[in-house]
Amino acid sequence: MEDYHVAKFVQLNGHELGLFAIYDGHLGDSVPAYLQKHLFSNILKEDFWNDPRTSISKAYERTDEAILSHSPDLGRGGSTAVTAILINGRKLWVANVGDSRGVLSKRGQAIQMTVDHEPNTERGSIENKGGFVSNMPGDVARVNGQLAVSRAFGDKNLKTHLRSDPDIRSVEIDADTDLLILASDGLWKVMTNQEALDIVKKIKDPRKAAKQLVLEAIYRESKDDISCIVVRL
Q1: So what's the pLDDT on residue 161?
Q2: Fewer C-beta within 10 Å: the chain N or C terminus?
Q3: Which residues of 145-160 are buried (b: 16+ CB within 10 A; e: fewer)?
Q4: Residue 63 to residue 157: CA distance in whole angstroms
Q5: Nearest Cα to 119, choosing from 143, 137, 138, 101?
Q6: What would the DSSP string read from start to end of 55-101?
Q7: Helix (H, G, I), strand (E, B) or coil at 31
Q8: 3-state class of 125 per DSSP?
Q9: Contact at 8 Å (CB) between 115 and 166?
Q10: Running DSSP on this structure, what letter comes out for residue 119?
Q11: Is residue 54 a contact partner of residue 47, using CB atoms and an 8 Å limit?
Q12: Other CB atoms within 10 Å distance of the CB of residue 141
């Protein structure tokens, strides 16, 4: 397992913030460990309260630059990320790079809040930067035959062909919105968004719900890292 996560509530500038994240590392855990320590602090600068979208986007960019500049210490690995910020229980901001995913429940229906950044869907961007996407029989599409996502933090050897800018989405939380699931791709490879939601909405305790999703993914023989956070809204 090369995953790290964040799940906590903090008080900041008179607001209650729920901070949630899954960082799914590859080629070691140095980059996700760095993200766990630094990404949210980079996001929650003064600009966040005036323009959350720009603040999140710039923080992802600055954090990636910092990771690349520390590559002698952090190594050549990388990480995907999905982050969620809940403001006063009323406003939710979700962002991601890579294939870790955020799924929201509204009236019992699963709404995907993130974009899976897969090499085939962003082939044009990769090829325009001089890279290529391989599609070997029996394997997933990979950037330069190596990485199965088209956006990530780190990965210095592939950075000229990768993006690290996040997709960002916000939503107002109302009485019809009751659950948020964040999970690495080890979960989503073996179940749909709605299947995951149907499992957790029957379990009141969010910790137990997250654990049940992980156990179900293992039962379904997922072969990838599995990390999961369930938030009751």
Answers
A1: 94
A2: N
A3: eebbbbbbbbbbbbbe
A4: 17
A5: 143
A6: HHHHHHHHHHHHHHHTHHHH-S-EEEEEEEEEETTTEEEEEEESS-E
A7: helix
A8: helix
A9: no
A10: T
A11: yes
A12: 19
Span 75-124, pLDDT tens digits:
889 999 999 999 999 999 999 999 999 999 999 999 999 999 999 999 99
As a whole number of angstroms, the distance between CA 86 and CA 180 comes to 10
CA distances from 209 to 34, 78, 180, 197, 206 (A): 27, 28, 11, 10, 5
CA distances from 96 to 39, 77, 136, 216, 221 (A): 12, 18, 27, 24, 25
User: Going from the N-terminus, what domains does the chain have, and what CATH number goes with each?
Assistant: 3-232 (3.60.40.10)
H/E element, 11: strand 3-12
Pair 82, 95: CB distance under 8 Å:
yes
The CA–CA distances, whole Å, from 71 to 1, 34, 77, 157, 185 equal 21, 11, 9, 10, 25
Contact in structure between 168 and 93 (CB atoms under 8 Å): yes
168-194 residue pLDDT tens:
999 999 999 999 999 999 999 999 999
- Structural tokens at position 67: 């990771």
How far is the C-alpha of 138 from the C-alpha of 112, rounded, in Å? 27
Residue 116 DSSP class: -
Would the pTM count as exceeding 0.85? Answer: yes
Enclosing H/E stretch for 133: strand 133-134
Distance of CA 108 to the CA centre of its chain: 22
